[in-house]
Amino acid sequence: MKKISIVIPAYNEEGNVALIYQKIKEVFDGLRKYDFEIIFVNDGSRDNTQQKLEELSQHCDKVKFIEFSRNFGHQPAVKAGMDNAHGNAVISMDGDLQHPPELIPKMIEKWEEGYDVVFTMRAYPKQISLFKRKTSDLFYKILSRLSDVNLTQGGGSDFRLLDSNVVEVMRKFNEDDLFLRGLTSWTGFKQTGINFTASERASGQSSYDLKKMITFAFTGISAFSVKPLYIAAYLGFLFSVFSVIGYGIYVIHSIIAKTEISGWASLIMTIVFFGGLQLIMLGIMGIYLGKVFKQVKERPNYIIKNKNF
Ligand code: UDP
Ligand code: MG
């Protein structure tokens, strides 16, 4: 019997774990051909998530949990689940029921058809703020432009099925800044996508605020592309050429017209402009340097305090 591992990162999801377990169980009751395990990764929750997980795992041997020593973030939590999964396929999904378990049979169907990666494309329902929808779309457009990974718009949901072959490959990555959705695309295995509409959180609050989203966007872009570094070099070159030509024109003009080169305002503006430009470029360099710094330390992505399997 083939086994499906469901990986669920959980950060302050005390109100949702029992609910999502119930839903998944119902789905697999209708899929008699498959065995399953649910691996909850408690990412340093501050509420009673751990207690709920322990209760749940006592009632049901399909429920497994991994407890982190502190909050390491969503991506490391998914990685930890994949590192510890035993199934022939691994499905990662959010613990707040925004990823409908009803989609699982369809994902498995695609997997049986021979796809190694079944990702999901999220369409946002009306309730989700226009701002979040637009920023998310914009992010994937920029990322696809800037890097070599091709992410379909909205392909950014972490609701995804991976064949054990792919999981095997993913385990070998020891990147510090994990960006799993880019990595799965990068591996080049046979992929397909299915659409779904995200629902609202069952309970609790989203922990992805604007600041986290922006950080995540930078992580994604800098993990897959050194193009921003080239942009810095190109822009520097372009502006040098411009300034040499501009300077030449001024000098020639002042000789012909027999005037002095004037205009303090324009001078100051130029200085400010280049000052800004240099700071931006320094910042970009800094982001990459920071990544190298973090990577050379080779710290683990996460630390497990406790697990029940
Ligand atoms: N999550 C996590 N660690 C964190 C933040 C979130 O494991 O530091 C989990 C969370 O429990 C949920 C999933 O990641 O299962 C998605 O988080 P959330 O719903 O807050 O994000 P959104 O759906 O708003 O993008
Ligand atoms: Mg959510």
Automatic annotation (TrEMBL):
SUPFAM superfamilies: Nucleotide-diphospho-sugar transferases. It comes from the Bacteria. InterPro entries: Glyco_trans_2-like, Glycosyltransferase_2, Nucleotide-diphossugar_trans. Keywords: Glycosyltransferase, Membrane, Transferase, Transmembrane, Transmembrane helix. Gene3D superfamilies: Spore Coat Polysaccharide Biosynthesis Protein SpsA, Chain A. One of its GO terms (molecular function) is glycosyltransferase activity. It is found in: Membrane. It is an enzyme of class 2 (transferase). GO terms for cellular component: plasma membrane. It is a multi-pass membrane protein. The chain crosses the membrane at residues 229-252, 264-289. Its EC number is 2.4.-.-. Its main location: membrane. It holds the Pfam family Glycos_transf_2. Residues 5-142 form the Glycosyltransferase 2-like domain. Signal peptide: none annotated. PANTHER family: PROPHAGE BACTOPRENOL GLUCOSYL TRANSFERASE HOMOLOG, UNDECAPRENYL-PHOSPHATE 4-DEOXY-4-FORMAMIDO-L-ARABINOSE TRANSFERASE-RELATED. This is Putative glycosyltransferase. The lineage of its organism: Bacteria, Pseudomonadati, Bacteroidota, Flavobacteriia, Flavobacteriales.
